[in-house]
Amino acid sequence: MNLLSIIKNKKSKFIMISSAVLIIASCTTAVLYSFFSEPSYSGPIEVFNSHEIFKSEEEYNSYISEKVALKGIYFEKIKIESGDNFWKIAKDKGINIDTLLALNPFWKSINASTGQEIITSNQKGNLCFVNRKITDKEALEIFESEPEKILFSDNPIIVTAKNKETKYFPVFVIDAKPSTDNMTESMASQYTLREKFTSPLGGRFSSYFGGRVHPIFNRYGFHNGIDIAAPYGTPVGASCGGTVQSTGWMGGYGKAVIIVHEDGYKTLYGHLSSIAVRPGQTVKPNQFVGRVGSTGYSTGPHLHFTLWQNNKLINPLKVLW
Ligand SMILES: [Zn+2]
């Protein structure tokens, strides 16, 4: 054996050993990786509501504002200042009240209180959590939205409870409505009622119900509905589907329409300039019933809207917020 062949032999032994080590190492890495990495795309998908994950509103607010990262969306924790309300905040942020409800699942009421901390975002939509990574196909099946509107985060938030770590993956669905499953009981019932009715003039508004000084008789009295100012001739829509009970001149209400709805609800549309429906007719939500006018006791064109349930007056703002 000459020197050259000894060197050759040693070299090939070295190559053989080192490649064996390399193969073992890479196999081990693969095994270890699959063992320790996420159980991605396997097992049933569970969608969680925030009450199942977070113990308190404070804990929820911190996690969302500090740990949830989704492409193009940011969540911010802000403090309610004196004079603020949720509609104003929603408007300032370019979102809507539905989004604020989706982002604040611990709310019990829609009345803001000074010093209260809430979560806002820069996009309209709904935030929820799933137990594992999801494919595009699964996302479509679960959230029933266009794929580009479903934003999924690969970075889970990790919540430790009873010494056990659980991972929750945030999903934001742009333009999706909040789910009543993700609300407190009291908020869910207020929201369900709100979803039943729409504004007779489109959009949401605020006005008053209760004691006031009458604009014509100049004396204090009870105003049994709300007034919505609108230009003469503006179309008025049914606030909810139902059956027209009566139409025509109704004293101080002038030309008016009364519609009865499911669950004992009844609505009145007053001071109309013209009426487009007749008694006994069924109407769909938002169906055209007449036009804004100033008939009856009225100082200018506006719609008077009254709501009853089982013949008891209800503040319309309870359903039209
Ligand atoms: Zn009125």
SSE run = HEHHEHHEEHEEEHEEEEEEEEEEE
The tally of helices reads 7
The structural class is alpha+beta
* Overall pLDDT level: 85
Approximately how much helix is present in the residues? Answer: 25-40%
Q: Using DSSP, what is the number of strands? A: 18
Largest sheet data: 9 strands, antiparallel
Question: How widely separated are the two ends?
Answer: 97 Å
Poorly predicted regions: 204-209
Shape: elongated
Report the β-strand fraction as a percent range: 25-35%
Gyration radius from CA atoms, angstroms: 31 Å
The total number of structural domains is 2
The small-molecule ligands in this entry are: zinc ion
Overview of this structure, please?
26% of the residues lie in helices and 30% in strands. It is elongated, with a radius of gyration of 31 Å. Mean pLDDT is 85; it is low at 204-209. It is built from 7 helices and 18 strands. The strands form 4 sheets. Strands 10, 11, 12, 13, 14, 15, 16, 17 and 18 form a 9-stranded antiparallel beta sheet that branches. Strands 1, 4, 5, 6 and 7 form a 5-stranded antiparallel beta sheet that branches. With 321 residues, the chain is of the alpha+beta class. The protein folds into 2 domains: 47-196, no CATH class; 210-318, Glucose Permease (Domain IIA), CATH 2.70.70. A hairpin with a 5-residue loop joins strand 12 and strand 13 (255-260). The protein starts with a helix and ends in a 7-residue tail after the last strand. Zinc ion is lined by residues 223, 225, 227, 304.
